[in-house]
Amino acid sequence: MRFDLQIIASWITPGARVLDLGCGEGDLLDYLRKNKQVTGIGIERSEAGVSQCIARGLSVLQGDINEEVQDFRDNSFDYVILSQTLQQVYTPDQLLVELLRIGRRIIVSFPNFGHYQIRLQLLTSGYTPKSKELPYNWYDTPNIRVLTIKDFKKFASEIGCTIFKEVAINTHHHEDRGNIIHRLPNLRATYGIFLLGQGKGP
Amino acid sequence: MSEYATHEDTGVSVGLVEKKFFHFADPPQAMVLEGGSSLGPVTIAYETMGSLNHAGSNAILILHALSGDSHVAGYYGKEDPKPGWWDIMVGPGKAIDTDRYFIICSNILGSCMGSTGPSSINPETGRPYGLDFPVVTIGDMVRAQKALLDHLGINRLLSVIGGSIGGMQVLEWAVRYPKMVRSAIPLATTTRHSALAIAFNEVARQSIMADPNWNNGQYYDREKPNLGLAVARMIGHITYLSDEAMRVKFGRRLQDKNDFSFNFDVDFQVEGYLRYQGNKFVERFDANSFLYITKAADYFDLGLRNGTQSVTEAFARARAKFLVVSFTSDWLYPTYQSKKMVKAMKKNNLDVSFCEIEADWGHDAFLLPNPRLSSLISGFIGQVAGEAEEESRAV
After folding, report:
1. Which of A96, A169, B63, B248 has its CA 20 to 30 A from that of A161?
2. Are A116 and A88 in contact (CB under 8 A)?
3. Which residue among B343, B353, B358 sits closest to A54, beta carbon to beta carbon?
């Protein structure tokens, strides 16, 4: 499994109720079900992803995450996972508030636009940077909100969330081994992963 | 619907099946219907495939749509030209695997395919009921199926599956008998008819009742209202297809001619197709049953019955794990209607999966071969079956 998903999985307590937003073909949910006895639901836009999940025996809803999260009751989940999707959401602030309503803990991961190679590209070439994590052109990218690890921490405090855990990695997200960055994460990490919630303490 | 039943390329089939009959509700224990009248005795035609396991935990009830019947898969005889209506889905190694599961398919109350309906003999008069047959509801159909399952000694269903009007029965089952239903798969269906759906049904009913042979429903000893029923079926057929399906299938192609005839014979292929389907239908279906079943579908409203005021309130009674499936080109029960029921299920914390399958073939897509639908159904049931086995081991 992808390295970032391994980290996310390690944060989840056994037997938890999990909502995975943009769950793709359900790799994380399937892993959590088999290894952590989790009851999970996924939300996925593509019919191919959804049908793959259901064929694997996972519970998944086809739809847009912004709309789908609205119908769940307050505190329906122990964890809500938003993996590699925040940068594609139109109103991340509204979505995060909604996620805090339906879940006790939120796990968010995203590509870090503050990585030094990205900074260098813009400085030296003058073109909008592209990276392995954000490989699109400015005109065809689904990633409408590029952000840095620093941006996210500021954002989290502005919308009133507490960050309980954070990990920065410098691995391409398709690889299943990776490095955790401890020093200068905003400059050196390609991905940030955060565990958020309301109030104090885990 | 049976025009879709085709031989499987692989030739794999559940083999010979036999239509059976269950009799109950002998007066004075007649069945009291939702509309208030009593009906009895009642006969329900049904078929079973596969075998019930030791724990009794592998029974699946399949519910058919308007004009379907209990003959869901396999053949009645070696010379049978066609298998049951869902032979592509039900059989050994198929999505609904008869090697693993015990399948029951019963014909609905009010139909003419072996169950008690308006063409059955009214014991009080010795003649067919005709319009003396009481109006039945989807709820009544489900209660008759429940009586059948009690008779078969099945107290829990692994899954309840059906499309269209069959899907309405699935929803009714899940809400009416929550403890009996472990999982439910409503396909291409709705919690209640839109004005559009009711309108089409009303036009179909009017065409039957406008046929001079209809004679207020008493036609069983004389010429039948076949023209009215054929037109009703033609209207139905249009709603089962889609703009795209009809364009691809027929376009504006002419039927066996190079130019218009400048009269009212068949010019276009689509006209020939509708006339053929209409005429074929009258050979096997009773016009009065068509009236009763379409009315039952129009009356169906999962939210506003039995003391509930909304769909969300209705699903509060359900316990099943759901798989809801809609099809992109279904304009009779469009996706927004499926999404509405999913919403209500989510509000009740029910375990629900939803998939909208891209299909050009309109409402009838659930009856056509579709690898995606097959893999959804087999994966979903397989998961539920696994959970059921674990549970029975734990006990």
Report:
1. A169
2. no
3. B353
Residues β-bridged to residue A165: A195
Mean pLDDT computed over B69-87: 94
Is B215 exposed, middle or buried (CB count within 10 Å of its CB: 0-12, 13-18, 19+)?
Answer: middle
Residue with tokens 């009303």: B202
Residue A163, min C-alpha distance to chain B (Å): 28
* 3-class SS string, B330-351: CCCCCHHHHHHHHHHHHHCCCC
Give A-chain residues touching B342 at CB under 8 angstroms.
61
DSSP label of B265 = S
Is B351 designated active site? Answer: no
Crossing angle of the two packed helices B195-209 and B287-299, in degrees rounded to 10 = 160
* Nearest residue of chain A to residue B312 (CA atoms): A71
B2 has a pLDDT exceeding 50 = no
Q: Is B118 exposed, middle or buried (0-12, 13-18, 19+ CB in 10 A)?
A: buried
Task: Determine the residue among B328, B355, B376 to mutate to test chain A binding: the one whose Cβ has the most chain A Cβ atoms within 10 Å.
Answer: B355
Cis before residue B41, ω within 30 degrees of 0? yes
Looking at the whole model, is its pTM more than 0.80? yes
As given in the structure block, the two tokens for residue B346 are 């989510």
pLDDT of residue B333: 97
Output the CA–CA distances (angstroms, integers) from residue B264 to B254, B261, B271, B315, in the order listed.
13, 8, 10, 51
Q: Which of A20, A56, A71, A73 to mutate to test the interface with B (most CBs of B within 10 A)?
A: A71
CA angle B48, B52, B57 (to 5 degrees): 120
Beta carbons of B352 and A51 less than 8 Å apart = no
Q: State the complex-level ipTM.
A: 0.90
Are A51 and B372 a contacting pair at CB < 8 A?
Answer: yes
Contact (Cβ atoms closer than 8 angstroms) between residue B190 and residue B165: no
B51 is catalytic: no
pLDDT at B361: 86
Half-sphere exposure of B287 (CA within 13 A, CB side): 32
Give pLDDT tens digits for A134-178. Answer: 999 999 999 999 999 999 999 999 999 999 999 999 876 566 777
Query: Confidence band (pLDDT; 50, 70, 90) for B77?
Result: very high
**In the annotation, is B326 catalytic?**
no
Selection from B270, B210, B222 nearest residue B243 by Cα: B270
Whether A59 contacts B379, CB under 8 Å: no
Task: Spell out the residues 6+ positions from residue B59 whose beta carbon is closer than 8 angstroms to its own.
Answer: B52, B101, B102, B103, B104, B149, B154, B156, B157, B158
Compute the distance between CA of residue B17 and CA of residue B83 in angstroms, rounded to an integer: 10
- 3-state DSSP call for residue B182? coil
Residues B65 and B109: beta-carbon distance below 8 Å: no
Contact B358 A73 (CB under 8 A): no
CA angle A109, A115, A120 (to 5 degrees): 155
Let me know: does A190 contact A111? Beta carbons within 8 Å: yes
